């Protein structure tokens, strides 16, 4: 697992939106429509950035502390005469970078019991999306897991 401090800057024109940068990783940037979305997007950006660095054999920089990241950001803002907006946050982002495409997993057959009305709704949604019943259950399960794991 790796962690790096991220700077979450409220977007000046879009209330609730945050832009994200990493002082230790120039070019690793992201944004989100809410703070939670920005955190998810920061994790995705950091995962991809570190994964690419590891695959290329580039050394990973030591992560700054949150206080060091804040000081660097504030010094750059002062130098550019563009103060950081009120509400700027610093937070560590923790990821496990993916350095190679994972092997495809074979599906596992399950036997589940659902009410006929639920099956009918699943089938209708699956058909609208061009998926199978198993496909829509897979999509729904992944979405649910993603939401509860934050």
What does this protein structure show overall?
The protein is an alpha+beta fold and 150 residues long. The chain has 2 domains: 94 residues, Double Stranded RNA Binding Domain (2-Layer Sandwich); 34 residues. The chain is 45% helix and 16% strand. The protein has a 4-stranded antiparallel beta sheet with strand order 3-2-1-4, with helices on both faces. α3 packs across α4. It is elongated, with a radius of gyration of 20 Å. The model has no long low-confidence stretch (mean pLDDT 87).
So how many helices?
Answer: 4
Characterize the overall form. Answer: elongated
What distance lies between the first and last C-alpha atoms, to the nearest angstrom?
A: 17 Å
Main beta sheet: strand number and arrangement? 4 strands, antiparallel
Low-confidence blocks of residues: none
SSE string, helix = H, strand = E?
EEEHHEHH
Whole-number mean pLDDT: 87
Give the tally of structural domains: 2
- CATH topology assignment of the largest domain: Double Stranded RNA Binding Domain
- Under the CATH scheme, which architecture of the largest domain would be assigned? 2-Layer Sandwich
**Total E-strand runs:** 4
How many whole angstroms does the radius of gyration measure?
20 Å
User: How much β-strand is present in the residues?
Assistant: 15-25%
Q: Strand sequence of the main sheet, in spatial order?
A: 3-2-1-4
Query: SS-based structural class?
Result: alpha+beta
CATH class of the largest domain: Alpha Beta
């Amino acid at each position: 697992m790796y962690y790096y401090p991220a700077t979450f800057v409220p977007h000046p024109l879009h209330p609730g939106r945050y832009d994200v940068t990493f002082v230790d990783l120039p070019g690793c940037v992201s944004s989100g429509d809410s703070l939670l979305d920005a955190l998810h997007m920061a994790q995705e950006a950091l995962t991809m950035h570190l994964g690419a660095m590891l695959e290329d054999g580039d050394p990973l920089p030591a992560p700054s502390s949150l206080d060091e990241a804040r000081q660097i950001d504030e010094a750059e803002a002062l130098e550019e005469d563009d103060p950081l907006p009120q509400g700027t946050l610093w937070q560590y982002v923790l990821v496990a970078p993916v350095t190679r495409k994972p092997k495809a997993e074979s599906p596992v057959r399950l036997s589940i019991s659902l009410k006929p009305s639920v099956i009918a709704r699943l089938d209708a949604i699956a058909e609208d999306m061009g998926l199978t019943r198993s496909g829509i259950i897979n999509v729904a399960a992944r979405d649910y897991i993603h939401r509860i794991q934050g």
